[in-house]
Design goal:
Elements: H1 5-11, E1 16-21, H2 23-26, H3 35-50, E2 54-59, H4 62-69, H5 79-101, E3 108-113, H6 115-119, H7 121-136, E4 140-145, H8 151-156, H9 159-169, E5 174-179, E6 200-201, H10 206-209, H11 224-236, E7 240-245, H12 251-255, E8 263-265, H13 274-281, E9 287-291, H14 293-300, E10 311-315, E11 323-327, E12 333-338, H15 343-349, H16 354-360, E13 375-377
Parallel strand pairs: 1-2, 1-5, 2-4, 3-4, 5-7, 6-8, 9-11
Antiparallel strand pairs: 7-8, 9-10, 11-12, 12-13
């Protein structure tokens, strides 16, 4: 197949790449890990690394592997059994990876993360430093959610979102999502035989989001909707995303040859600095502010700080220094930032100009609710 110029530009020079592989790529319908598939994946990873790329693998499969080893036949639905499957399956998953990587002399490095590791700026930076050091030792970082202790991730999360957060953590210009479908279709191909594969998505808008059917599988936690959310997270921060069928032999080799396989999601703009990636696309907001049209223009178009006078509503209970979401009057997210005031303090000064605040409240420690240096535009 002839290489595509745009895709080739994403892979021809050495760079950091995050590859996410789903449970249904690694395991059969009963949850048993497919050794041949893992060995094939290891060989492709070795070739990508030999070409100069720094690669991080975000791998699902621990719960699925536990399902297979325990002979359950299908994925449990209650939390204790999910966590037990993860505890049994994680060691089996890593053992297979290491055996598959041994012929290439690549050490497998297990990293288990939770959402809290991304919310905490200190733990976030520590994770990035650890991965950087593993690159120095020629190890392959293999990242998974810490499913044995992480409640929210198992109940509501998925490794698609984790992979996008890791891509932002490392400022990786390319995220590859390997799933059990060929990419994004115009409709669910299992239901609509006229559905067509979408080769390139310039921007993930409402029309693109509407193409995601409910495609959740028996073993995995995600579906097309979760993959689109992950793609939006990565592309909004300036990265590209390729979604492709990981069940196809040599799929990574084909992607890194620039072949037009799967669906390519183009970046929405310039690459976002590391600090703004954490602030705008990784840390979880503790509350939100609704702002008027003038404040929205000031923040989004002019790049200025958010002042109390433009705030129309305060939601949630958060403290000084917490991340908050900035919403327009229609409830759409436009930015995120670190608040200089708690929610209670903000309610006292919202909608007031500086001189009004000084008359009614007294001393104003900060003129800005959110300083522009601590603010990231997200919408």
């Amino acid at each position: 197949m002839v290489a595509d110029a745009v895709r080739l530009s994403l892979v021809e020079s050495p760079r950091t790449v995050v590859v996410k592989v789903g449970t249904n790529v690694l395991a059969d319908s009963a949850g048993r890990l497919d050794r041949h598939r893992i060995e094939s994946l290891a060989g492709q990873i070795a070739r990508i690394r030999a070409a100069g790329h720094r690669l991080v693998l975000v791998s699902s499969g621990a719960i699925g592997a536990g399902v297979g080893k325990l002979g359950l036949g299908k994925r449990p639905t209650d939390l204790p059994h999910l966590q037990a499957c993860a505890a049994v399956g994680q060691s089996a998953l890593m053992q297979l990876y290491q055996e598959a990587l041994n012929p290439y002399g690549i050490p497998a490095a297990q990293i288990l993360l939770t959402a809290g590791d991304f919310d905490s700026r200190v733990r976030y930076l520590n994770a990035r430093n650890t991965i950087g050091t593993l690159f120095e030792f020629n190890a392959l970082p293999i990242i998974n959610e810490n499913d044995t202790v992480s409640i929210a991730e198992i109940k509501f999360g998925d490794n698609d979102a984790l992979a996008a957060m890791v891509a932002n953590l490392l400022q990786a210009p390319l995220l590859v999502l390997l799933t059990n479908v060929d990419g994004l279709y115009s409709a669910d191909p299992r239901v609509d035989p006229s559905a067509k594969l979408v080769a390139t998505v310039p921007h993930i808008d409402a029309g693109i989001a509407g193409m995601a059917g409910v495609t959740k599988s028996d073993l995995g936690t995600g579906g097309m909707k979760s993959k689109l959310r992950a793609a939006r997270l990565a592309t909004a921060a300036g990265g590209a995303v390729i979604m492709a069928n990981g069940s196809l032999d040599g799929i990574l080799d084909r992607i890194f040859a620039g072949e037009p396989v799967g669906t390519l999601f183009l970046p929405h703009g310039e690459s976002v600095p590391a600090w703004k990636r954490w602030l705008g696309f990784t840390a979880q907001p503790k509350g939100s502010l609704t702002v008027d049209a003038g404040a929205r223009r000031a923040v989004v178009e002019k790049g200025t700080s958010l002042l109390p006078v433009g705030v129309k509503g305060v939601f949630g209970e958060y403290g000084k220094g917490d991340v908050v979401t900035i919403l327009d009057l229609d409830g759409r997210e436009v930015a995120r930032g670190l608040s200089n005031y708690s929610a209670a303090e903000t309610r006292k000064i919202m909608g007031l100009a500086k001189d009004q605040i000084q008359k009614t409240v007294g001393t104003l420690p900060y003129d800005e609710l959110i300083h522009r240096d601590n603010l990231a535009v997200t919408g």
